[in-house]
What we know:
Keywords: ATP-binding, Helicase, Hydrolase, Nucleotide-binding. This is ATP-dependent DNA helicase srs2. It comes from Neophaeococcomyces mojaviensis. This protein is α/β, with parallel strands linked by helices. It has 42 helices and 20 strands. β6 (210-213), α11 and β7 form a beta-alpha-beta unit. The structure holds adenosine-5'-triphosphate. Residues 7-9, 12, 27, 29-35, 242, 245, 277-278, 589, 591, 625 line the site of adenosine-5'-triphosphate. The site of adenosine-5'-triphosphate has 19 residues, from α2.
Amino acid sequence: MESFLKGLNTAQKAAVTSKASILQVLAPPGSGKTKTLTSRVAYLLAHRGFSPQNVICCTFTIKAAREMRERLRGLVGGDLESKLMLGTFHSICRRYLVTYGHLIGIPNNFGIADSDDSLGIIKRLQKQLKFGMDPRAARNKISHRKARGQTIEKVNKTVSKTAEAQEFADIFRRYEDALATSNLLDYDDLLLRCVELLQRYPACVSNIEALLIDEFQDTNNVQFELMKLLASAKKRITVVGDPDQSIYGFRSAEIENLKRMQEYYPGTVVINLEENYRSSSAVLHLAQDVIEQDTERPSKRLKSTHCYGTLPVLRRLHNPHEEAAWIVSEIKRMTKLTGGCIERSDIAILLRSAFLSLLLEKALANAGIPYKMVGGRRFFDRVEVRIILDYLRTISHPDNSSALLSIINTPARKIGDATVAELNRAAEAAKMSLWTIVQQAVKGEAKLEKKLTKPAEQGLKELVTLIKRGQAKLKVFEPAQAPGQLIELVAKELHFLEYLKKQYQEDWEERWENVKELSLQARDVTLESLTAEDQLPEVDGVKQAKIQGAQEVLSRFLANVALSTEIESGEEGEAKSRITISTIHSAKGLEWPVVFVPAVYEGSIPHSRAEDTNEERRLLYVAMTRAKALLYMTLPVMQSRSESESILSQFLSSGIEHRLKDAGPIFDDKVVQDIATILGRLAPSQESLAKGVTMLEENESQYDDIWPLDGSPRAPSLTTVMEFPFSMLQQGQSLNDAMKSKTNFQQSAKYSTFPNSGFTTASHQMSSTSPHIEPVQIQQKLKSAASASSGQGSIATFFNNGTSKQQIEKENLPLPLPSKGPHVTTIHSGKPQPRIPTELSTHRPGLSTVHNPATTAKRPRPVLEETAESNKRAYACFSSSPIKETCNDTMVQHAMLDCIPEPPKYNTTMSSLQQHRSNTGPSSYKSGMLNTLSKPAALTTLSAMSVISGPVTKKTLGVRRSMNGWADRKNK
Ligand SMILES: Nc1ncnc2c1ncn2[C@@H]1O[C@H](COP(=O)(O)OP(=O)(O)OP(=O)(O)O)[C@@H](O)[C@H]1O
């Protein structure tokens, strides 16, 4: 079979090999749309004999373009893929405009105004015109108009007489003038002008044999027009899309474009893909329930190809600070306890709003966990990088007033705000660029109302000299080396290193590194690469412009910068250890084994300013469906910004919430095995899992039990944690009674904070379960418990109503460890011990149901099916429901082993339990024995659990916990 058909399902193969001229592949997330599109490109090249330079493939992001290129390299081999015209709509349009723009009067050295430039222009206009409209709103409105194909000429013709409409038309007009004066095109212009070009000169695309478009649901009107024009020669179009993932309505995306396309091309063939290859059934079904809340959308079939996996989590935390801290702790817990199966690079935190990253970034930095931002601040937007780039932009396009204004007094050269305002005024009055006025001012020729101060004049002179020197150098630099050499020249002339040292005493080194990195990247630019990237095949009758001198190389280098959307990650090795923080919008089309979605409250998602609730729901759907194996959503119950209580997002509250776990999963064998299976990875060895446990640090737990489940604050100074079953047993209950009590306990625990936060919540728990005890007494008891934990007694002094050691032995129960036994833990000095994981009341470890699409007419719900004997047993043991008849003592005892302190000695009555545990229990139970006497404090958990595995095989694992955890991590 051909390589590009390998591994495709029937529907995918049909789409890849379809003979249809106009083809729509519509499918839900993770069903292989991008894979299918990539394979279709390979098919068209191999079977239809199309030349790659005559095939255009549009992706939504640069990252997607890069990934598709890589996939294609594997499929088509050679350098065929490099000849393909593959990129975002904007980059493809830029190519056409650079090559043919001269035909419609665009000089091929035009600059690109990015969003900041556009906003800067409008802010300056606001200062001059004192208009009331918010500059951002004005920019967005202009962009909306342009995205709908409305040029200023059209706006002028249709503008109504209201003052507001007139004001907007005036801003629009002046904005367009400012762009023209600066020889700039904004992002919308790239598309609009390309439409204009292709309407007037369709011959430019007469060679195009096929057009393929990814993420079609997010195209806007202008892109729809472009589609028609780019494919006008042969009318061969393939698009893939999913209306449920349309999330760019706020940027004028037209969800209707799929329908419009069918109407415009009546012969359109539609192929639906149904199987989801990305996510566990648990994730997929939850996401589907969310999207199905929109009853107006056509229902769609969605089949999972993976096992049920782990239930998604909705975790409540007290406030955004604790939310960030919890996410970091959960990341650490999962990377350690999955024995290497999940790495940091497998994890993404997806944000509805970029500002949410702040606390997360801080928390990650504090923990020494490296991360990369996607869709946030780009490398090119870092202050120090931006300054250098603005000098380059000014040298390249001095009439670009935005760039000139950014650097006019940076580094400071005594040019104050008043001088800048006067220069701007003069430029506006003379209808000249700021650069022209600045040059005149330096020569004393500018018509200024206020005379320049001497220092300001001197400062301007220095600036003009530098810019002119840069321009002069451009004439002598080797073209390909121009950007790199210019960066060095500017940095040297500005004494930029000294400037950074003075300005940023704390992190100047890092900033200087960024400047060096920029220079390195610029040096990587070669004329060939620029030419190859931009080259369009020659077509008869239309003249192409060619890259010639250093000026054009610089101009193209800057255009590439303006069109890049994400920060470059460092070296490959480094990138592997980074987690990803991304906005949900930028995560479109991507996938990760683990996804966190923070801040799932009303006002955040759906966003308070969003106009379309359905689009917000789709946004959450997109975020959820990026997850392969684990999905976490978090809710800070208090919002620090407003000090108000959060309300859970409407998308999760109605009938969905109860189907989510309220705590992170227990990473037992079954859970880890399922994760490995879903990710198509080898399950980690027992050694790796055990090693993971040893890597837990003093303040970490195997369970997600450090933060209260209900979102109450985490006690700042935790003193003692009590172990429920042990204490119950010490109150003289039998094992079975204790198990029954456990059910009640867990249910109450779900609403209390007792098992998680120790001191505070124990008090709370005590007052709720022992109403006869006064709070003061409780505090006293807790104090004595605290002293017990430090070896002066036992927790029994707190709870013990006289249960003797003999009684415990009579019940054939494991003995508690003395004083520092696992049931009493001083948080400051010891690791929390195994205890009843409170989430057991809502989730059962190792009980992921096996989803069988063939036999499951109804989707499995968290009410877990008993599909296998082992599951049945485990179900009974971990259920919060009353113990079932079928659950024998062994099972009860097994369940108890998860909760009660382990005996210091191997207990023969436990042999059957061990056997069972070694088959089904938490992976760490399978570890060999560690010497409990000599173990470091941090190994308490492992050793306590190891004891149960017995001295039968008295071996150590040879695992040594690094004492250098933090330092090591920082070095990564
Ligand atoms: N037939 C298949 N067999 C195995 N894996 C597949 C198959 N088709 C797709 N996949 C895998 O499923 C995952 C999702 O594929 P892809 O990204 O192409 O989906 P998509 O439909 O474009 O998703 P989205 O709409 O969410 O962006 C990828 O990891 C891909 O390799």
